[in-house]
Design a protein that fits this description.
single chain, 111 residues, mainly alpha, 434 Repressor (Amino-terminal Domain), 7 helices, 0% strand, SinR/SinI_dimer_dom_sf, DNA-binding anti-repressor SinI
Length: 111
């Protein structure tokens, strides 16, 4: 899948028009269109940085084709992890919590 195709898919997924993406990223609508239609095959890194920021993805996601079996991280999981970090929970405490949950599940009578 090309960079343009990935940009178009991500734009559509976020419900953005070409105009909205162009305005938010501060780039020309015609340039985004030419990238999406694969007329412009080598967009600049500055363009990719601006577009990826609006689409809430890193530039690598635009550049590299990901394996279709790769599991996407659920945004809710990311928010939960962020909330845990902001509340002061350490990685060690989080790991202990996960281990306790596994232990509890393995020792439940209805397993």
């Amino acid at each position: 899948m090309s960079i343009g195709t990935r940009i178009r898919e991500l734009r559509m997924k976020k419900g953005l028009s070409l105009t909205e993406l162009a305005n938010r990223a501060g780039v020309a609508k015609s340039y985004i269109s030419s990238v999406e239609r694969q007329i412009q095959l080598n967009p600049s890194i500055q363009f990719l940085n601006k577009v990826s920021a609006v689409l809430d993805v890193n530039v690598e996601k635009l550049i590299h084709e990901h394996d279709s079996t790769e599991e996407e991280i659920d945004m809710e999981w990311l928010e939960l992890a962020k909330e845990a970090m902001e509340s002061g929970i350490s990685k060690e405490q989080f790991k202990q919590f996960l281990e306790f949950q596994k232990w509890q599940k393995s020792n439940s009578p209805d397993k």
